[in-house]
BCCT family betaine/carnitine transporter (Virgibacillus alimentarius), 529 residues
Amino acid sequence: MKSKLIDWPTFIGALFLILAVSIPLMLFPDSGAVIVDMANNFMTEKFGALYLLVGLAAFFFLLFVAFSKNGNVKLGNKHEKKEFGTISWAAMLFAAGIGSSILYWAMIEWAYYYQGPPFGITPESKEAISWSTSYGIFHWGPLAWAIYTLPALPIAYFYYVRKTPVLKISEAVRPVLGNKIDGPLGVIIDVLFMFGLMGGAGTTLALGTPMIAEGIHDITGIPITLGLKTIIMLLCTTIFAISAYSGLRRGIKFLSDINLWLALFLLVFVVVLGPTVFISRTTFTSIGIILDNFFSMATWLEPFGDLAGFKKTGFPESWTIFYWAWWVVYAPFVGLFVARISRGRTIREMILGTMIYGTIGSVLFFGILGNFGLYLQLTGNLDVIGFMNEHGAPAAIIAILHELPLAQLIVPIFTILAIIFLATTFDSSSYILASVVQKEVQSEPLRWNRLFWAFTLCLLPLVLMFLGDLETLQTASIVAGFPVIFIMLLLAWSFIKASNDDIRASKDYESPVIYIDQKNTKKSYERYD
Ligand code: NM2
């Protein structure tokens, strides 16, 4: 019986938690928004240091693992080839982990920093401009990608090395929590992860939908109404539901490949036909600024903000902390996904690949798209900031694109790319949500199950949009991310514990690629049972 494959407590638990949060928000949108706001402020102000610590800790932990013996371990059998070539692998990784938000923020993040810079710098000064081109890259840079990679370690390890056919977060913490994860504790861990991912997805949809609506409005002249936004959400859901339904190799890989080519086209177009020299010089300089200030950027919490009459900017709460929370909620999902596509690679390849390709991708988007907008601002061709303050960020994004040659072509391409970027994040999310509510995943989770989560991911933001507005959802990641921080800790610990045990027992301890024979893992595995 197929329904026996479903892990009903997790399935129902996740659904229940989502409804328990959404229904009150739907019924009382105004007080709901106030409460969400309070919860956000509470989390970011009281636990800011904890969120920032996650970024730094994940980064150093991964570097340590990559260059230790643990990094030599091969994910899979001894002579197994890589399941996906490196380009497809990097494209899928980027397409899954990054959604339409990169188009949104790469285009416009600088404009916020320009007006509201960190470190007490005068807004709109030359210094503020330098920071404005660097901070976006930092928020999508190596620390952020490290947050994404960490959960992939234990998950890939248990799936391909110990060959446990379960794609679940709870399974990946078995070495630390032992049998307890077979009871309610395991269900709680999986449900909290699913809840986090849905919060992150809510943030993504809440930002992506207005931008896509603006693009469609620009192309067709259809006014931006609730109806248009609803159609957009439904259209995106249909695309990603079909993709998730067709599975990993056909649907998800196919969309990721188109995504890659379209994105490359857009980037090359802007670099070549835009201010090439300005873009390259500014991007290069930003990398230097980030390297020079890496630790200050990673730890700045504005501790004297409102003391001694200083003016608090709220920059850390609105940006770095919010961002880390947003990466955290997506991280176990990206981990599950990266793990799933990394068969045949070593742990080191997986870690360095994710951090390096991921960061390069972010640098390209922010460097090219962001600096193009900045160029328009500085040369006076378009007052992006004035426009944004008056008409909002999505309209400013489209206005920037209009400054390119062949804008009639570029706006549709940008809009389609945004839809595909959204779809490639959501198809893999529903694929993973479906995997987590199954007791076992041999090759792919059940089809109806994938479809179910595809629609659930979109349904709630849709209803919330009708009743309130999307703004409440934009910061959903912060609250939903809090419990996930602790799950991240368990994941790291669990990986080290299990892989150290196995490596010690392995015959090719000294070789550059360590293949772990499952027979040797048995003993250590049994200890946890
Ligand atoms: N992250 C990368 O909306 C999206 O692009 C999905 C967002 C966590 C900031 C991920």
User: Anything to note?
Assistant: The first helix runs from residue 8 to 27. The radius of gyration is 23 Å.
